[in-house]
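Anyone? Bumping this.
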Amino acid sequence: MEILRNTNIDFMKYRKFWILVSLVLVLVGIFSVFVHGDLNVGVDFAGGTQMNLQFTKQPQVDRLRTVLDGAGLKEFTIQRFGDEDENEVMVRTRLAKGEEQGSRAKVEAALDRELNGDQAGKPDVNRIGADVLAGLLTRADPDRLGAAGAARYLQTAEKIVAQRSKAGLFKSWDQLAGLGGLSQAGLQTLQQSAALGHFAVLGVESVGPQIGEELRMQGFYAVLLSLVGMLIYIWVRFELRFGVGAIMACVHDVLVTLGLFALAGYEFNLTTIAAFLTLIGYSVNDTVVIFDRIRENMRKTRRKPLIDVMNESINQTLSRTLLTGGSTLLVLAALMWLGGDVIRGFAFVMLVGILVGTYSSIYVASPFALLWEDWFGSGARAQSAGRSTETPAPTKAG
Amino acid sequence: MKGSNLLWRGVLILAILVISVVLAWPLDEKINLGLDLQGGMHLVLQVHTEDALRAETDSDMDRIVKLAEEEGTTGLQPRRTADATFEIAAPSPDALDKVANLAEEKRFTGRDGRWQVTGRGNGRIAFKMNDAEANLIRNSAVNQAKQTIDNRINAYGVAEPNIAVSDNYRIVVQLPGVDDAERVRNLIKSTAFLEFRIVESGPAPTRQELLAATGGRLPDNLEILEGDVVDPSGNDVGNQYYAVQKRRTVTGRDLKNARPSQGQFNRPIVQFMLTPTGSDAFGELTGNNIGRPMAIVLDGRVESVAVIRARITDEGIIEGDFTQQEVQDLATVLKSGALPAGITTLEERTVGPSLGRDSIEKGLLAGIVGTSLVVLYMLIIYNLSGLNAVAALALNVVLLFGGLAAFDATLTLPGIAGILLTIGMAVDANVLVFERIREELHAGRTIRSSIDQGFEKALSSIVDGNVTTLIAAAFLFQFGTGPIKGFAVTLFIGLTASMFTAVYVSRWLFDFVLSRWRIQRLSI
């Protein structure tokens, strides 16, 4: 199926209008991120502790707030996550300078006091490892197995812990019955010698302010150096004005996407940086394909003005630009829709970024290369064409 | 294209395919899953190397003073001024000279000494440790801490732990599939510094009460330590305080072995055995203090106090408010030795297995749906030639997994996203070629020549475009950590593979079809 064939759209005609539109979008992005502070910076960069907790009963968020307040935690957020009936909550606390160790222990202790006060130092079946669990059974030997018990109970304990790993936590003692051959007597032993805690920590991400600062700098350098690296590559392969055009388009994509990302409220973390760097790669790739065609056409028709060559080249590559964008968007849509909470921010950046990037490689990159030429170039079309033939020709396919 | 050429290219492609399959199959054995997918613990620990430096400074300072005292110079007042500097105040210029000469004579200072005299006057002499020596001590403290943690983790039994020293005196610990996170944290972090101290007075409910007993001021040879109050059923119900002697003759270093055991009323205890030198010192300590209480101090807290009934030499027990599991871990940490310096956790990422499994399931589902969509898309847009692209894509995915296995790379959650993204972007090279072939066909070229031209002309775009993304991936790899590195590797391998499949394999497929059948009209 061929959708576009021999299009002849004058993309460059309204280039000043589109540059203006882009400028406004970029400014909105800059404003929302850097002035209004909409960016939801995650623990990776801000420093802080994020805990995913699961409870045996649906937790009362207000009550949790009071408990954590009472434990002396400041600046925390509590939000539900996951499926409704899984009783899951995410707690995020900020860390000030010097609080490198994170607040996991504090949160856990506060919840223990609130929810597990009745356990009186008994081991918590929702927390202990298989060997400790096996130890409890072996010592009491509810099934009267004697010397053969240790190995048998360890097997049972491992099954129980594996089931707990799968489910997150046991909500009641009933869920343990029969697991890995746990007998009724065995269950009673556990009920006596151990307790069933009312919450479990599914995951912890704690980044001290010191590491947060380092990750911030690393992320910054990664983005900056990638941009510089690409500028140099395009400079060497093409010409400076094209390099500038490509980088302008790229910076445009990053800032506009960042603005929309901030407004959408997704968390900005390490994975997001990876998404942005990939976006930079994609954006430049998209632009380079068009520039490659411009270079080719410049060699073929030396007399044509650059602006016409650009229009012609954009039209010729239009079908490819849209088709590639389309296939990548399909994958990203699947990822955003089905990939889960952790990956959704990543998918959002790429999804929006590819839409913006496709637009910018048509409406921003070439006009900017042209602007650069108007401002700093010699203006002589023949000269630039002559220069471009001096750049090394691409190697031929074997 | 000649027939034999075609054959050899086919053989090469097949060989690469077979190698990839062999490398990557079965997937669950050959592909490493990151901690974010299989569940586990990632810790970045800061070793406070200044602790080790201070200990070393203290010990040298004390030795100099002791040597001087042995030679009859008394009244010296040593003081550590920073981590690696100290000064000694002497009552007379003569005494000061003695100290300076002695330090040189005993090789503390001078050409092979580790100390430099940085100032002298006003009845004081100041010493500073050489930087090279200080670095040596810091580095050895980190290595020793790593070794100690290694031993403890091995004793606990975690499959495939990864413990490495990193920059700035840090240790990165990666433990897949931990079933009791709290216990492992304690195991790693407990300094396990064991001391035996003679108790002068106490227990008392507050510090003030102890101070009041000695007239409000503690004698220089004593210090106050905290311990738990334990009720008869073994529960910890508060704190109490002891005044103990500062002198520590026997420490954890003198331990030969430690093992969990059971004491009176089946209470869990730790039994320990001392080294020969430890036994001598312990014998002296207990022999000289029969009838007095002795405290067993662990990491600065009094664990238990017992009255010395007789001279004890080579073994003893530690009682306290312990559970079975705690004595087991205590024995482990005592046996592995004390950490040479304190550590703090700078970063912790623990992913429970349930979260990891969830991520894998969702990633897999998104992958299947996304890939199916792309396949459908290519078939709709390019008809039969789309089939060519799909074959190239399938090979691309096989190569990607082969590459991951070959480089022993780790698949992470962002890595799964990277694979998907590569699948979306890999068809770009196909699209570039196919669009070009269409153009050439429209320009009236033959099928043969359109295909040749299409591949030839699209090549520079494909290379230029992919190199830019590879640059981004390289910087990501350089600056990224853990899961992000996994993403960068996936992207890098995926893009490289896609260039190969879209240019070389797809071309071969076209050539193969054209050589077998007389094609009148190219379905593209």
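Late reply, but here is one note on the structure posted above: Residues 353-406 of chain B form the longest helix (54 residues).
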